Amino acid sequence: MKILTGNDLKTGAVTWWTGVGWSLDVNESADVGEHGAAIIAREEGVQNVFAAYVVDAAKTDEGVRPGHIKERIRAFGPTVRLDLTVKPSEASDLNWVI
Amino acid sequence: MYKYDEYDQQMVDVRVEEFRDQVRRRLSGELTEDQFKPLRLQNGLYLQLHAYMLRVAVPYGTLSSVQMRLLGDIADKYDRGYGHFTTRQNIQYNWIKLEDTPDILAELAKVEMHAIQTSGNCIRNISSDQFAGAAADEIIDPRPYAELLRQWSSFHPEFLVLPRKFKICVIASDTDRAAMRLHDIGIKMVKNDAGEIGAQFYAGGGMGRTPMIAPMIREFVPLDQLITFSEACLRVYNRYGRRDNKYKARIKILVHELGRDEYVRQVEEEFAHLLTQPIEPPLAELERIKAHFADPAFEAGLSEELDLSDPDFRLWVGRNTQAHKQAGYVVATISLKPVGGIPGDATADQIRLMADLGRDYSFDELRVTHAQNIVLPHVRKADLYTVWKALDDAGLATANLDTVGDIIACPGLDYCSLANARSIPVAQKISERFGSAERQAQIGELKLKISGCINACGHHHAGHIGILGVDKKGLENYQLLFGGSEGADTSLAKIIGPGFTEDGVVDAVEKATEVYLANKQGEERFLDTYRRIGMDPFKEAIYG
To answer: Which CATH number characterizes residue B455's domain?
Structure first.
């Protein structure tokens, strides 16, 4: 699947396109197929999100997982400060970010 | 230390209000991101992996306790309770909100700090020896010259849009503690045969994807020509440095492609021309600046004795303190590298504690080192145990300066949008593997530096052991390098062979130390043994 990510203008926080808006939770990402560029053009005009781009991802049993490690770290937070990450409800594995 | 005059303060205050208006226009939609990006970068505000990142300048690494305390307060009030001290002697905050940035800059301006020229193709923060003004081996305090260069380079209209960023370092001792020859321009304050102080210039050094050691370009520049000669160096670079390819745009490429002699010829020609122009500030200005760096009121006749009966204190004194030029005092380095910790990170409480210790026990001064540690430059020996106890209580008394645990590491892929691999977890694993004080003592001085990409913010080219993280088909991979040094014996590390996984590179470092210990002669450091026996014994042990 292809998903869209960007940064919130005010906070810089990493956000993900849900199909109707932007979320901090990668698991709410919508598959944008081939429409990524058009959505970016429209949404960046609204000014709330910037630096948006398309990311390859997969829908897994754990949720939506970006394909590249850089995007997974963006999605969940620094692997060396798990106290600052976006945690899953059941974080049993300390290495869950990667 | 230097105190702003009305011009300094006005420049910074005006800039804060200008940026406040720019942020307002960005948030209201009047400015697009493309329009705003160069404006925020000029004020040190980057976009990193998780959020905005603010890089605050610490000129030549010198801080007052009030400044240091504010850095801790900003970490609490506007970030997530910590800051990251960098290899450029600056501090970075990783979780900054755009709307807060003007207020942060306004608070910084009140204590004579800013984030100007911490990004972009301009002259960046001038770095220096972290022991300046205290070291027993310096010929003069290099900071007044660094400050003069700071004033010259701040908002210099000709050099705000250089081909690429530009880094200057000033030192004043033979023991290079600031990687001087790995800068775009390195300046070493020297004394000539007549006993006059002047500046020895080096140009065209740097790390990054094409590491180079700067050659000397002039043996002696008189103090009343320091700015004029600097201007000539920059003018030649600004005129002929490449702007068509950012990877070939640093001055090191120009000096290399022209050849050192031709670059020198052009600089000397420009210098001769500039001497006919009245651009050099009067020496009275240098004297005015120097007055700010007068020695603090050291007490005379203090005892040199130290009670070393506490074994942990003895270990820390032996490892983390250096000789001071004034009898009865020492230079104390606070390691920000606890075993298993994140190199360069400090919590808000730790930052404030260090500020208090600087105020109470170091004549109100602290320093940030390019190795991501903090220095209390002027501690009375009689106060040292009290200082150590306070540090120990705060988790800041790790006795590992210049050992394998004192690792330089860039933020890497955990924070940086340019990185290809994580640096910090590798540093943590190595630090834990070599965690025992006995093992670190057995290995002795071993400077290990880790970068998460070819940009080399972790100085891997200058590590006795360097580690470079790369992206290998989507997976993190780590190249190992040996033989670098940033000291007076500057050398560039060489890759030893195929890369490793994260755990594999930790094992390889351990094997390298075993080869060193098996081959070491006398008091040789790891680097000395490597230079004597070469790479083959290490390769054999690591790759089999």
So the answer is: 3.30.413.10
Whether A89 is covered by a domain: the verdict is no
- Stated pTM of the model: 0.96
Does a structural domain hold residue B364? no
**Residue of A81, A94, A95, A98 to mutate for B, most B C-beta atoms under 10 A:** A81
| A33-70 pLDDT tens trace | 999 999 999 987 777 899 999 999 999 988 899 999 99
pLDDT tens profile B467-510: 999 999 989 999 999 999 999 999 999 999 999 999 999 999 99
pLDDT average, residue stretch B19-38: 96
C-alpha to C-alpha distance for B357 and B65, rounded to whole angstroms: 8
**Direct distance between the N- and C-terminal alpha carbons of chain A, in angstroms, rounded to an integer:** 19
Instruction: State whether ipTM is beyond 0.85.
Output: yes
The DSSP code sequence of B70-124 is HHHHHHHHHSSSEEEE-TTS-EEEEEE-GGGHHHHHHHHHHTT---TTSSSSSB-
pLDDT of B29-67, one tens digit each? 999 999 999 999 999 999 999 999 999 999 999 999 999
Q: Which residue of A has its CA nearest to B46?
A: A12
The residue behind tokens 């692997």 is A79
Same domain (yes/no): B230, B153: yes
For residue A17, being part of any structural domain is answered with yes
Range of the domain at A12: 2-84
From B47, which residue of chain A is nearest by alpha-carbon distance?
A12
Q: Which residues of B touch A77 (CB under 8 A)?
A: 50
Q: B213-244, pLDDT tens digit by residue?
A: 999 999 999 999 999 999 999 999 999 999 99
Of residues B406, B414, B525, the one with CA closest to residue B459: B406
Chain-chain contact of B50 with A14 (C-beta, under 8 angstroms)? yes
Q: Residue B135 and residue B538: Cα distance in Å, rounded?
A: 36
B47 with A79: Cβ contact below 8 A: no
Q: Over the stretch A25-35, which tens digit does the pLDDT of each residue have? A: 999 999 999 99
Contacts of B50 in chain A (CB under 8 A): 12-14, 74, 77-78
In a domain, A95, yes or no: no
- Out of A9, A74, A80, closest to residue B50 by CB: A74
Residues B257 and B155 in one domain: yes
Identify which of B50, B98, B425 has the shortest CB distance to residue A80: B425
**pLDDT for res A31:** 98
Q: Which residue of A has its CA nearest to B476?
A: A69
Residues B18 and B148 both lie in one domain: no
- B447 and B539 both lie in a single domain: yes
Same domain, residue pair B153 and B262: yes
- The pair of structure tokens assigned to B19 is 């940026």
Instruction: Give which of B322, B288, B8, B291 is closest to B137, Cα–Cα.
Output: B322
The rounded distance, in Å, linking the Cα atoms of B174 and B181 is 12
Strand order in the sheet with B45-47: B45-47, B52-56, B91-96, B82-85, B345-347
Collapsing DSSP states into helix, strand and coil, what is residue B452?
coil
The verdict on residue B128 lying in a domain is no
Tell me which of A50, A80, A82, A94 to substitute to probe the interface with B (most B C-beta atoms closer than 10 Å): A80
Give the per-residue pLDDT at A65. Answer: 92
Domain span at residue B39 reads 6-110
Residue A91 within a domain: no
Is residue B536 classed exposed, middle or buried when 0-12, 13-18 and 19+ CB atoms within 10 A define those classes?
Answer: exposed
The pLDDT of B147-168, averaged and rounded, is 96
Query: Last residue of a domain, which of B291, B325, B349?
Result: B291
